[in-house]
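Quick one, T. Sequence first:
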Amino acid sequence: MAPRTTKPRGEVTRGTTAPNRLRRIDRWITATQTGPLRTGPRPLVVDLGYGASPVTTVELYTRLRRVSPRAEVVGIEIEPERVAAGLAFLDNAPGRYEGLSFRRGGFELPVERPPVLVRAFNVLRQYEEAAAWQAWDELSARLAPGGVLVEGTCDEIGRRAVWVTLRGGRPQTITFAAHVTSLDRPSDLAERLPKTLIHRNVPGERVHALLTAFDHCWAMAAPHSAFGPRARWIEAVRLLARTHPVLVHPPHGGRARWRLGELTLPWSAVAPAP
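Structure tokens:
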């Protein structure tokens, strides 16, 4: 796939970013996506719309290299000044980040070969729902065979996040992740739903039923608060699994992931009603 010189596709984001804002999604990627990340001698990963600072792209590169030492990461931004900031960072650290680069672009993904993984976080929030669905299709079509798109949103300091994975152009899973100590109830995560779902959190939709049930399980698990908020989250997820298709086995589920404040389900559990 040759780099393209056409105008980048997409809109400029707010650019808000901060160190460790995306640590939850990075931790999840390195634990659950080792298959794509170890495909071929130089698996390519794209960080789309990294914002005003390259810090989260650099963090993604560092974390991926621990599980895929030859992975290459390209940070892509529409705004030229943001690309310049990434290039300046590399200039100030010569030789330290082999395989990390920055370039201008958008949904067209101006890279030399199809990526095995695209992370697009806090990119589609400003789009209309129909445009978000279209972006999913467009990005998925540019993945390498077996590649994965991870798209979602988080709050400003990364304490609450929701993301969806797509393979073969179809959404596969949805993950809710929270700093459980600061969480009042699971449905507080609704404000971080991807654009394809955020307006569907109403009675009659699966995502609303899921979050309502999760709140009920959270209330039922209140006695476990004596052992800490993580224990309460784990018990609430265990109760939810009785009525919803929670992924309960590694790498996506199980006590180790739940203890981190995560919950992953198949997309069918939240897919919009026809």
